[in-house]
Automatic annotation (TrEMBL):
It comes from Aristolochia fimbriata. Its main location: plastid. The chain crosses the membrane at residues 176-194, 200-215, 227-244, 256-273, 325-346. It is found in: Plastid, Chloroplast membrane. GO terms for molecular function: chlorophyll synthetase activity. InterPro entries: Chl_synth, ChlG, Prenyltransferase_related, UbiA_prenyltransferase, UbiA_sf. It is an enzyme of class 2 (transferase). This is Chlorophyll synthase, chloroplastic. It catalyses: phytyl diphosphate + chlorophyllide a + H(+) = chlorophyll a + diphosphate. Pfam families: UbiA.
């Protein structure tokens, strides 16, 4: 939801980003009507300064179709082919490659509730919650982020839909609103379906959506600060979808809130992975990502430390809670992540970021499920 319900790199998840989010966390609660801001205030145009003109001038009129991949285009990742089909372009903006962590977050939350049953109704509820967290609210988050990052993308990834001009301003704004309102509507539907007296899933969706907005949009633009922005993104991808799944099938307890926020520190580390490929554009536009602020060498160690120490802390918590087998299972899943960090990431984080994430993150998300199962017993 983050950073819609939950969350860019990564984790589940759920959500960058919130539950969603980026779909997201820290956010004021609001009704759908309160989100209907006048269009002119929903986005802020960059001033036509000489710096901005220089940035815009670096974006080509068309994407490099010759070298691009159609598969990458559908997933919304770097190296995408130029596409003229508007529906494929819209899908690219939602970055489907970022949906799985959010979907997995819902799975973990449902498992942690201890009340999920393999029947048609519970499976249907979980699928709707996954659609809310992934395609709707994470899609909203990613489209919104691309809109506000259009000047940065003109430097780092000029072939993306917005800086290359293959989709219009009005079409992007329409997509943002449709995905946002669709996700909030599904959140309300799930509360009614679950018989909640308090619409907790809806409010989690609202909170994740607001966090996503302040992450990307001025004047707050949390992503300008490497620590705050990456933690918000991590919470959106891990905490928010987990909370939504657990609230849907059971009760969201304070200890789970604390545990998942702790796990979001690992999400912060995952979010940093994506910052190394954007150093040039972030530096040009004054965004203080950790690689820009601390340099590549220091930032890469901050990244892996956040991921590893967080998981080791959770393993220690499970051991102290009298669940040694779950703690050992989690420890076993940490070891291959450390191996791939030395094998790929620490050698060259910008060159091997995709290989590292593809190799190591499956073990991290399995560790999330182990933790969820441990807390359900």
């Amino acid at each position: 939801m983050a950073a819609s319900l939950l969350s860019s790199s990564s984790s589940f998840s759920f959500p960058p980003h919130r539950l969603y989010l980026r779909s997201s966390t820290s956010a004021a609660l609001a009704s759908p009507s309160s989100l209907a801001l006048p269009r002119r205030r929903f986005y802020i145009r960059a001033a036509d300064t000489e710096a901005n003109k220089a940035v815009k001038s670096s974006a080509p009129d068309k994407s490099p179709a010759k070298d691009g991949s159609s598969f990458n285009q559908l997933l919304g990742i770097k190296g995408a082919a130029q596409e003229t089909n508007k529906w494929k372009i819209r899908l690219q903006l939602t970055k489907p490659v970022t949906w799985p962590p959010l979907v997995w977050g819902v799975v973990c939350g449902a498992a942690a509730s201890g009340n999920f049953h393999w029947n048609i109704e519970d499976v249907a509820k979980s699928i709707v919650c996954m659609i809310m967290s992934g395609p709707c609210l994470t899609g909203y988050t990613q489209t919104l982020n691309d809109w506000y990052d259009r000047e940065i993308d003109a430097i780092n990834e000029p072939y993306r839909p917005i800086p290359s001009g293959v989709i219009s301003e009005s079409e992007v704004i329409t997509q943002i609103w449709v995905l946002l309102l669709g996700g909030l509507a599904l959140g309300g539907l799930l509360d009614v379906w679950a018989g909640h007296k308090f619409p907790i899933v809806f409010y989690l969706a609202v909170g994740g959506s607001l966090l996503s907005y302040i992450y990307s949009a001025p004047p707050l633009k949390l992503k300008q600060n490497g620590w705050i922005g990456n933690f918000a993104l991590g919470a959106s991808y891990i905490s928010l979808p987990w909370w939504a799944g657990q609230a849907l099938f059971g009760t969201l307890t304070p200890d789970i809130v604390v545990l998942t926020l702790l796990y979001s520190i690992a999400g912060l580390g995952i979010a940093i992975v994506n910052d190394f490929k954007s150093i040039e554009g972030d530096r040009a536009l004054g965004l203080q990502s950790l690689p820009v602020a601390f340099g590549v060498e220091t930032a890469k160690w901050i990244c892996v430390s956040a991921i590893d120490i967080t998981q080791l802390s959770v393993a220690g918590y499970l051991l102290g809670a009298g669940k040694p087998f779950y703690a050992l299972a989690l420890l076993g899943l940490i070891l291959p992540q450390v191996y791939f960090q030395f094998q790929y990431f620490l050698k060259d984080p910008a060159k091997y970021d995709v290989k590292y994430q593809a190799s190591a993150q499956p073990f991290l998300v399995l560790g999330l499920l182990v933790t969820a199962l441990a807390t359900s017993h």
